[in-house]
Amino acid sequence: MPRRSKASTSRAAIALVLLTLAGLAAVAFAADQDDTTGRVPYPVIAQGQGENCVEDTEFMRRNHMDLLLHQRDDTVFEGIRGKRHSLRECIDCHAVAGADSIPITVTSPEHFCRSCHDYAAVTIDCFQCHASRPEQDVVAEARK
Amino acid sequence: MNVKIHSPAPGKEFDPARRSFLSAAAAAAGVALAPGVFLYGVGAPGPAAARNLDEAVTSVVRWGMLIDTNRCESGCNECVTACGTENGLQGHGRPATDAQWIRKVDIRDPATGYSKSLPMMCQHCADPPCVDVCPTGASFKRADGIVLVDKHSCIGCRYCISACPYKARSFVHEALEDQKTHAPRGKGTVEGCTMCVHRVDEGREPACVEACNDTGGGAMLFGDLNDPKSEISKRVATYATQQIRADLGLDPGVRYRGL
What we know:
The structure holds two protein chains of two kinds.
Chain A: H1 6-32, H2 57-78, H3 87-93, H4 112-120, H5 126-129, H6 136-143
Chain B: H1 16-33, E1 63-68, H2 78-87, E2 102-108, E3 115-121, H3 129-133, E4 139-141, E5 147-149, H4 159-163, E6 169-171, E7 190-192, H5 197-201, H6 207-214, E8 220-224, H7 231-238, E9 241-242, E10 254-257
Parallel strand pairs in B: 1-10
Antiparallel strand pairs in B: 1-8, 2-3, 4-5, 6-7, 9-10
Helix pairs in contact in B: 2-6
């Protein structure tokens, strides 16, 4: 085996790191594009209402569960009902309209929460108790 | 005749000076809290004082109800209907297991035939036995006296159902869908009257009280038992009222008049 110089080893290492980064970037790009046509399926994530979420999208992707857990205990035990990080706000803002323009429930794979959790194989039991779409009479009232 | 006199437990002697000091302190705290507290909702402020929804509830208030059974008609069911509508309680045609947060009870003295009708629901005890027996801490009393179930930690063991002397709790047997946003409920958990905590937090009164006053006999009154100026405090101070099964020493927050 030919002896390699120190410089060529480090050059190879840098190249390897660059290649890995490029690969990661491509994956991230594909995820942002919601590419469903490729070999790897990506979840179709519906756009929420308004300009932006209550927090940065990247932050929400990683930390929404902690925010919800925190808000949940504050609300149940102490009656703190600030709306910013409540499940109700998530549901209201990220409601996905079905074919009949009525918001779909979590029984549909296109549901905002479900599309991603299915993809990540995360089972959540929020919707055994909580409604998975905005209250229908409230929605009807708003449409009038 | 053997008359038993119940004296307070040692260390629990009633001290009027201490009580008046405490209420004065509470009044002072109320004044100090007033700036920065925004009025939630519009129209005339309800019996529930406006509270900053970003702050935790405190034991300065104790929510309670006074039910005047003289005004409660036997056939009237307005409170029960209103509760079902407000909290999305739909029956499955199985009275033995269907959710029942409030019910009408007709009582009759067999010796005289004297009868009364009254609504019965969670009595929001100061010392709730449901909280004592809960193995997970799911059954709890909020600082303002409202007894609730944290369904996130309820395992559905139903000890609380057995422990409650008022039969105030129900168990959800069926999978549910499209619950009310303000009243999440699901299969495998215990539930009961929440004193419409979502409305109380907004400064409104419970749905049953509202319905009783709108279309019923006007028998129900909701308010703060700790505030001597509240209507409920004035009435319980003026008229003879009683707690059901007061002998159990649970100090329910729901009082009845005319039983």
